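Example (one chain per record):
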Amino acid sequence: MKSIDLFTLAYRAIVVNKLRSFLTMLGIIIGVFSIIMLVSIGTGLQSYITKQISSLGSNLIFITPGSSEGGARGSGVNKLTINDATNIQLRLTGLAQVAPVVISSSNVTYQGKIDKGVMIAGTTSNYVKTISNISFSQGTNFTVGQERSGSKVAIIGATVASDLFIGASPIGNVITVGTNRYTVIGVVAKRGSTFGVDQDNLVGIPITAAREQFGVDTVSAIYLSANSPELVPIVEQQAKKVLLEHLTTNDFTVQTAESTLSTISSITNILTIALGGIAAISLLVGGIGVANIMLVSVTERTREIGLRKALGAQRSDILKQFLLEAIILSVTGGAIGIAFGMGASMIVAIFLFSTVTYWSVFLAFGFSVAIGVIFGMAPAIRASKLSPIEALRYE
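Predicted structure:
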């Protein structure tokens, strides 16, 4: 029998029972939709994190208190000091920029307006050279002289500027951070959010002023930026040597942007695979539905099968017809699921993180075809093995 005739017979059998065919395809639609949707969310999350880390600079190295290995945190006491940053800078002269940071939060006020919970970063003038995506929309950074003298000057983020200085320039005005007054000398250009944290809700002050205001001798982190990507391993190694002169490995953690990105990528890859696996279960259930309906169809059409065999239809013709019906149901359901999945992913991308990848579409479509072949094979074989005499006698 010609392929076009087999396709016509299979198509007619599906159309005769429209509602049953649709309900059968619904399991495939939901399965394919779920695979594309969940994989897109996982891929989108990975892309977002990668972009956020990359925006900080590929040459960036982070030094933070405590050890990240095995959950150990040393004695629980922060032992990183500004002297550590100074010693590292002396060792790495010509190789990297170093910027220690003291981080806290405080209310910031200006002429009766209050901006609550602003991140206060006490750092050095090197900070803007260390973090690659910092520039100024107004004014300038504080100088080394202002940093060393502990001058009460501040640079503010775009969010703070818009909250406190509506329609006015902040430059030269005095804000109050906690109980101390600072003169605004610069406004950082809008940076957006990183991992959900508004990077523009920030006030930067000289680290000497921050240590005095918050009464601390330690630093929250030390940022290093190698002068070139090739120098990152050398900078990392030298920084560790300086710190190990008076600290233990449990007292600090050194991470590069690349290693951080690699770790997070591994986690998000596992998450994406897990989400896809969960979605594949629903596709498997849909396949069982296809097999169930095809078995029912074989039973209902036993006399038809017997008649066709009596008229000369070959066993292979019967097998191909029922297998083709199962494949048409699965492929049609898969195509509809892909369309809905891509559409939903694009909508989600407007509000959250979602990226449709070609491999997830091909994977979902491939699964739907495989489901049709695998779960349609048993009913098709059963139909092809029916004896024409017994089939014609079937009531």
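Caption: The first strand starts at residue 60 and ends at 65.
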